[in-house]
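Fill in residues.
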């Protein structure tokens, strides 16, 4: 049985959408984190800001697609953080009640866990990406 892709996530032969993060300026990163819907737990916003800063630090003003070696694995890990946290923000924004916040997080954790398990023998970059996203989801409330 093949695993279904995580909603809104690039789990196919498509190139992961880095949204140009490798070329963003620091002030742009703050704007992205501040884009959170009202009522979002501050730990999600803080975690997103941290992940964006870490991703920018790893990229060091280089395009993400040009990174090699350990830098690419680190970038994929932090990119997974960013994508998972943005997916959590979207899921919570689309939910109807605060109680749905925890349910949305748990559903995303289950989806990312399944994807990580299904990519167990895949390219290390995918494992870095999925591990980063899963750890981000588990680290916030």
């Amino acid at each position: 049985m093949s695993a279904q892709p995580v909603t809104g996530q690039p789990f196919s032969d498509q190139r992961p959408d880095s949204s140009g993060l490798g070329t963003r300026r620091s002030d742009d990163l703050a704007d992205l984190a501040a884009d959170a819907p009202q009522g979002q737990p501050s730990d999600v916003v803080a975690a997103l800001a941290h992940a964006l800063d870490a991703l920018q630090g790893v990229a060091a003003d280089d395009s993400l697609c040009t990174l090699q070696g350990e830098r690419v694995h680190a970038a994929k890990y932090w990119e997974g953080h960013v994508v998972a946290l943005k997916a959590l923000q979207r899921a919570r924004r689309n939910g109807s009640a605060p109680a749905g916040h925890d349910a949305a997080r748990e559903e995303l954790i289950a989806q990312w866990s399944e994807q990580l398990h299904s990519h167990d023998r895949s390219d290390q970059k995918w494992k870095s990406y999925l591990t980063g996203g899963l750890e981000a989801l588990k680290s916030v409330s």
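The radius of gyration is 15 Å.
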